[in-house]
Write a structure and sequence with these properties.
Strand content: under 5%
Shape: globular
Structural class: mainly alpha
Distance between the termini: 39 Å
Largest sheet: none
Helix content: over 70%
Radius of gyration: 18 Å
Oligomer: single chain
Length: 222
């Protein structure tokens, strides 16, 4: 009995690792241009080149990153709320197609705000202005707001602007959940960049999405 139970637990763990890895690979594959441009940032030394590369990422993000990430949130939502055995590839493609236009329009509204925020953040960081901390806090809020937008998109049947409004109200009105998402994903990012870089390939996107949607789901349940 003990051996059988242990084997069953190992099988469950292996199954979840496989699902997390597969979902992460799907997400990275649908984001290949963004992935390439992001890694290219580390090789560019010229400030003008960084700006051009950043603008290129910002241009493509609504059409590539937002639909792909929404599809990943759709998969994670199924795991958390209803069906942990959802067929990954077929379901990911269905969520991608169903939410493409909505995600793209959301990206067209959100990405310019991100670009302005990032430019201001680096400007004030370079000048050692106290406003640096203000834009750092704004960046954390914007990050959680964007994640809540993805969660709202796949969890509720609402109009686009209602989803944006709900994401903003949730980010402001649930500060502990905002901190929880930030800390959870921050730990995953630290492990991926400083301790175990292979996690970027194996499951950073999937695990980060799992943290974001799990906290979101707990917040809306209350």
């Amino acid at each position: 009995m003990k051996t059988g139970g242990l084997l069953q637990q190992l099988n469950t763990v292996t199954e979840w690792i496989t699902k997390i890895f597969t979902a992460n690979i799907l997400w990275l594959f649908f984001n290949l241009p963004i992935v390439y441009l992001t890694f290219n940032l580390f090789a560019i030394k010229d400030p003008a080149g960084l700006i051009v590369n950043g603008l290129t990422i910002a241009f493509f993000a609504p059409f590539i990153l937002f639909p792909a990430t929404t599809a990943l949130f759709g998969i994670i939502r199924k795991w958390v709320t209803t069906d942990s055995q959802v067929p990954l590839i077929r379901s990911y493609w269905r969520f991608y197609k169903e939410n493409y236009i909505r995600s793209m329009i959301g990206g067209l509204l959100i990405v310019p705000l991100w670009f302005i925020l990032v430019i201001d953040y680096f400007y004030f960081a370079k000048t050692n202005s106290p406003l640096y901390y203000l834009f750092l806090a704004a960046g954390i809020f914007m990050f959680v707001f964007t994640l809540h937008f993805f969660s709202n998109t796949v969890h509720f049947h609402l109009k686009l602007f209602q989803s944006l409004k709900n994401a903003m109200l949730l980010s402001i009105g649930k500060p502990l959940h905002t901190v929880g998402i930030t800390v959870g994903i921050g730990i995953l990012f630290y492990i991926s960049t400083s301790i175990f870089p292979l996690l970027i390939l194996l499951g950073l996107g999937s695990l980060g999405t799992l943290v974001a949607f799990f906290v979101f789901n707990k917040a809306v349940e209350r």
